[in-house]
Amino acid sequence: MHKITSTKQLTLWIVLGLLFLSFQETHAQVKKVFTPRYDETIKGDVTIIANNMLSADATLPFNGNADNQDSNDRVYVDIDSDPSTFNSSRATLNDPAPSLACKEFVKAYLYWAASDKEAGGVSQNADSWNHNQVKLMLPGSSTYTTVTADEVLYRGRDEHFHNDPYISVKDITSDVVALSNPYGDYQVANVQATYGGLQPHGGGNYGVAGGWQIVFVYQSTELLTRNITIFDGYAHVDNGATTDFEVDGFLSIPTGPVKADIILGSIEGDRVLSGDSFQIKKPDGNWQKISTPLRGQDNFFSSTISIDGAHFMDRLPASTNTLGYDASIFELSNPSNSLIANNQTSTTLRATSGQESYGLYLVGFSIEVYEPSLGALEFTTSPANTTYDPGETATLTMSIENSGNDNIRNLEISTVLPVEVEFNSTEPLPAGVTHTFDSGTRELKFFVEDGYIDTGDTFNIDFNVDVLGQCYFLETACSANFSIQATATFNGEINTTPQTTNSSGTVDECGFGNHDPSIVDINQPDQVNWETGNNDLNVTIACDDADALASAQALEPTTEFCDFTLNKVSGAFVPDPDCEAEGTYTNTWTFTDACGRVSDTFTQVITLIDTTAPSFNETLPADTVAAYDNIPSPETLTAADSCDSNPQVQFQETYIGDETSTTYTIVRTWTAEDCAGNSIEHIQQIFVTENGDPIGLSIDDITVDEDAGKATFTVTHVGEVQGGFTVNYASADGTALAPADYTSITGGLSFSGDHGETKVIEVDIIEDIITEDQEAFSISLSPGTDTPAINVGVGNGTIIDNDASTLSIADIDVNEAIGNATVVVTLTGAVQEAFTIDYASIDGSAIAGDDYNAVSSQINWPANATNGSTQNIIVPINDDNLIEFTENFLVELSNILAAGDISFTDSQANVNILDNDAGVGTGISFDATSVTVDEAAGTADFVVRLNGNVQGGFTVDYTTTDNSAAAPGDYITTSGTLTFTGNDGEFYTISVPVNDDSLIEDTEDFYVDLSNISNILVLNNTP
To answer: What is the pTM of this model?
Structure first.
């Protein structure tokens, strides 16, 4: 804070005036042409809810007559306590027609609009949210949903237009319709907007404004018919200017009084600034100002949310002055159709300004119309929901009612009969109704004379059709139902516009027709079965009887009724898996009805069999003898069969006695068999003497974990040795060494001599805690007593290491002046072999070359490293004279090259460099803590100076405060922000205007305060 003293010397009259010249374009500023977003003629109406998002207080209503034009302290309205929202407000939708039993919402549009200039000067704007998104909380919910606009109608910021207004719109109909109860609180949050104050791009002061509005269109069978048209766009009105814009697409009645409501939405209209009007161009070409309660003809846009001329107060906060945001629905005074005439579909609107600039984004019309209507035009069976059998007569009913407000003329109702039925007759028709039926086109028409279907008239038209017989639904078309729909064409007596409507097979819960085809259900005939019984066509014949096979293939089954196309699948001959001469032909038949139902499969099986045994072709070998070393080869015999083209001959040789000795008998058997199992056999015996076979031993390899305890080798004998034998064994070192890695062993094994006999050799494995590579040793066999041939004499043993070691690197903090940072790498566990790891520094907020010198190298760890051993990494630290925050860099380990299991538990160290430059003697201060000036000096100057260098620069705010001198009488309140680049000795001057007056008074003083230093390291050395 700074203090100033002023001495009175003379009296001076000062006249201050502010002339604001805003040289703006005064031509029409239609930034987005107004086009219909919704245009329907319904039995219904429209209502709105709305609320503002900027006010004088975040939660309290503002009800004064102030404006938002010259205020720089407007804040966001924010009624919730949700930290994810920066503004929020609420409005309640009440039942607009509580006396009606049933209503439906058919359309709901959410609009939001705001001035959205970038922050600067008095304008504040965090730009923390997308302008095309808001948060919406629906009735019955306690959470927000983020919605994105279907369209941004206009965004001024794209071209830096005036106060940068924007308007977004979202169709929320599906969300509203999905609610079990659409009435209640609608809460909107996060409407992006400027707050504080606003200085437009062309100069001046607009003030800030923003809000949201929901337009609801609803219908009921009990409401009058209205043409409802919602137009949106953006028309901007400059200060002192006029903007004309056209809306084209609504519809007024052809005759009689035109009764219309208008729906509006606008932004930036002020309560106390007059001269703004809303005008309509009359059919005679003249302009008429529009007014309604709360909206005068010369201050129409008055920061008001109103419905039918009254404040809409079911909202929170419920401000009667919404400070720049307008939303309204009101009845248009249209005496003698002077503003909107009959058969009018467009008009031109005008917005004028005397003292302010504003913009319109929403204009809607809800106009009562004369329209004849057949309503739902229900088309049902009689009785309703009747299901018919094929061949039965169905009675259909059309319910005719003129539910409109105009008499129907020239009514014709036509329908084309579906193919599932034939026209039978009509029931007695009501008076004035006749019909025709064209058998060629199948079109049935009804004609109603004028005068028989005036407003409120009702009657039914009944006619009969014959449902086709069951074979149609089985052979030609599968129809579990048929659909039928009628089309009515007509016009009104007053409203002569031709109209067309379709009949309704169903109506919704409020009685509105869905104008969908009427569905008449038909009992689908049951599926047809086979008349021919199962197995009736199955036959068994000899495999060589061709005539019997042809007769069997010509057989065919029959159906119970109707004439279906049979689908025969003639199966190929499938030989018996064990006999190709025998087998079956399997033929199948199916038929498919019109419903796609496939019949049961009818199956015929034709079986071929063979009963004759084959015979040998060659001379059969006789019994004989042979020496043990000269055994003759078996002869090859073949056979033939009457059905089987390839009978099989099987050969088998067996022995009587021990075929490994020198005396035994060979028994050779040939068996010829056809595929049917018919067989013949021949046996030959060969007598053999004197024989001997070799024997042998082998030992296997084994792999074990270091902690297995034992390694077990298996020695296997192939052959037979009478009386048994022994074999010797001994271990031998490889990379595994005894006794450190295993226990050496020698010994012998005794075998009984049987074929396939095995013995085991067990070796003790020594477990250690050293990380190492896998190691190997071996067991060798050598002859013992009566040892047979040793075919595999060496068994290799592999020991897999089960130990692991880890590396870690520790974080450190160092002073900037330390010179070198020492980073320690620690080994946990013992490692047998030497190994290496790579390391490298990585920039964080500290930058290599400026704050430290980058390092990148390799650590070579020696062999036989012990648990807890360490290696150091040295990183040079660079000292500077900058005041700066603590900075950091990383040292990262990578790429372990080692024999054995070594891994990182922490591969990255964080090194914090602690700054040593800030402290006493640095920071900002005034060159003089007290400045004395004469009252006539004009200004008092204060010099703010920086001692020390500050990295990245900083800002500091300043402002004046009263003491005995008071602003604005003695001096002009001055505030702002100083921006320092961060150089030692840098200074800036704050000039405060001093007012000279003619009063004789004591010396007066005021203060200049410094605050909000953006860098917390910079000291504020002011008193």
So the answer is: 0.51
